[in-house]
Design goal:
Layout lengths: L30 E6 L3 H16 L3 E2 L8 E6 L4 H20 L4 E6 H6 L2 H5 L5 E3 L7 H9 L4 E3 L22 E5 L1 E2 L10 H5 L3 E2 L2 H13 L4 E5 L7 E3 L5 E3 H9 L6 E5 L8 H9 L6 E3 L7 H6 L6 H14 L4 E8 L6 H14 L3 E6 L7 H5 L6 H26 L3 E9 L6 E5 L5 E5 L10 E10 L2 E9 L1
Parallel strand pairs: 1-2, 1-3, 3-4, 4-5, 5-6, 7-10, 10-13, 14-15, 15-16, 19-21
Antiparallel strand pairs: 8-9, 11-12, 17-18, 17-20, 18-19, 20-21
The structure holds S-adenosyl-L-homocysteine, iron/sulfur cluster and FE3-S4 cluster.
Length: 473
């Protein structure tokens, strides 16, 4: 099955992905359409779903109006994420009124959170399948075709889909996501993920290496290893010999020096020096760590149940910079968590100042039903105040990102070319070791997608570095 690209929007991965298939004219095969929201893990899951459906004789379509099965892979992380999905469902329901044979299925975290309630709330939804239930999709679709409402929201302690070869969606043929674990055993009080994704479990190391090697052979040049907390990856091999995250990272890096390796997300309480030494020891493991801090106030960190202090976090940042000089560091920050005072907020700004993040993903607190925070604490900061604090955080981060980019001017970056620049087909876009976007003209070089280039950075606009290629790297 051929899968082509579509569009993206949303905060981190930003958005929705559509599968576009190679429908054979006149073919009677049933067609599915899938759209994804939320984090990279959800996008990776949609590639597993595409593979399972492909194996059951379905072909993909990019037009939901002509689909027999319309699937939406959903996110529950903030209320706004769920609202976006409800308005998409509204559009799909209208399409179903014109095509009564169409089935609508809700997958992912919102399916898991709301379970059968979704069928009552969202009339005309036929299927509700949680993140651990995708193997049963073909059977559930059949049951739904016979008029039954189908639900599978069982969470598993074992499922990792290790043996399923994902069908790449939205692929540029250069970068791919590879899930190395599922679920999360932390209980950050604001977070819905432990409820929607279940217990943490690691995927068979051998299957990860095989998937990454296969991607390299197909021409991919970058893999991002995914987990909610990659540092607690642990595979107990039957042949004896455990595999830790540091060992796995090293094994993936050894596939080829031409394959770049990234990973996300690290947890400040778990990231080890061993992992940092592996990063430093391999040129092809990117010098980049995403280390969400959430808040700079010890009181708030405790209420959030993050299990580290501001001092611990800053010590980890110093250690990263000691072991991996030039490491790009980004973070996640939440403003306006329960009881947050102006002083707590100022502590977040001062931590940002000390940590000097190159980039941050920032959010205002959104209470999620059933979480520890929703049960224990009042959501007592007015939304206007949450947004005012968020605005200060964003402005402060923008200033720091600009000054981090200014420091790069005159330096030479190794850039992996991902495709045309969004603004002009006459320029290439790629990212450097530190995960910064670099744009440079195609003129005067014979480089292509998937090539590495040495680029001299000449100036920067907002978040992007602009340069000139010196040579192929
Ligand atoms: N596993 C990762 C993050 C997963 S969710 C980690 O531990 O860091 C991605 C980010 O969404 C979080 O880091 C947090 O900043 C944000 N987030 C999670 N729940 C939220 C909520 N209820 N309101 C606002 N932001 C939230
Ligand atoms: Fe959520 Fe915390 Fe787990 Fe991240 S580590 S997914 S924030 S519970
Ligand atoms: Fe959203 Fe689920 Fe990911 S809640 S952020 S899609 S794990």
């Amino acid at each position: 099955m051929e899968v082509l690209t579509a569009r993206m929007h949303d905060e981190k991965i930003q958005g929705s992905a559509y599968v576009q298939g190679s429908a054979i004219p006149g073919s009677s095969a049933r067609k599915f359409y899938i759209e994804s929201y939320g984090c990279a893990m959800n996008f990776a899951d949609s590639e597993i779903v595409a593979s399972i459906l492909g194996g059951s004789g379905f072909i993909a379509t990019a037009d939901f109006r002509e689909a027999d099965v319309v699937l939406i892979n959903t996110c529950s992380i903030r209320e706004k994420a769920e609202q976006t999905i409800r308005s998409r469902l509204h559009i799909f329901r209208q399409a179903k009124r014109l095509n009564s044979g169409m089935l609508i299925g809700v997958l992912g975290c919102m399916a898991e959170r709301l379970k059968a309630k979704l069928l009552e709330e969202e009339k005309l939804v036929d299927l509700v399948v949680g993140p651990d239930g995708y193997r049963t999709l073909p059977v559930l679709i059949e049951a739904a075709e016979e008029g039954q409402k189908s639900v599978n929201v069982l969470l598993s302690r074992e499922e990792t889909y290790a043996d399923i070869s994902p069908v790449r969606i939205n692929s540029n043929g250069v970068n791919a996501f590879v899930s190395i674990m599922r679920g999360c055993n932390n209980m950050c009080s604001f977070c819905v993920v432990p409820f929607t994704r279940g217990r943490e479990r690691s995927r068979d190391a051998g299957s990860i290496i095989r998937e990454c090697s296969g991607l390299f052979e197909e021409g991919y040049r970058e893999v991002t290893l995914l987990g909610q907390n990659v540092d607690s990856y642990h595979w107990y091999s039957e042949k004896g010999g455990d595999v830790t995250f540091a060992m796995l990272l090293e094994q993936v890096a050894c596939i080829s020096p031409e394959l770049r390796v990234r990973f996300s997300t690290s947890h400040p309480k778990d990231i080890t020096d061993e992992v940092l030494f592996v990063i430093d020891g391999h040129e092809n493991i990117c010098n980049y760590v995403h280390l969400p801090v959430q808040s700079g106030s010890n009181r708030i960190l405790q209420l959030m149940n993050r299990t580290y202090t501001r001092e611990w976090y800053l010590a980890r940042i110093r250690r990263i910079r000691e072991i991996v000089p030039d490491c790009g560091i980004s973070s996640d920050i939440i403003s306006g968590f329960c009881t947050e005072t102006e002083d707590d907020h100022q502590e977040t700004l001062s931590l940002m100042h000390e940590a000097r993040f190159d980039m941050s993903y920032t959010y205002f607190y959104s209470e999620r039903p059933g979480t520890l925070a929703a049960r224990r604490y009042a959501d007592d900061i007015p939304e206007t105040e949450k947004k005012r604090r968020l605005d200060e955080i964003v402005k402060f981060q923008n200033r720091m990102s600009r000054s981090s980019n200014l420091k790069d001017i005159g330096s030479i970056s190794k850039v992996l070319i991902e495709g045309d620049s969004k603004k002009s087909a006459a320029a290439w876009m790629g990212r450097n070791d530190q995960n910064k976007v670099v744009v440079f003209t195609k003129q005067g070089n014979s480089l292509g997608k998937g090539d590495y280039a040495l680029v001299r950075i000449e100036h920067s606009t907002g978040a992007t570095l602009i340069g000139e290629a010196i040579s192929k790297a």
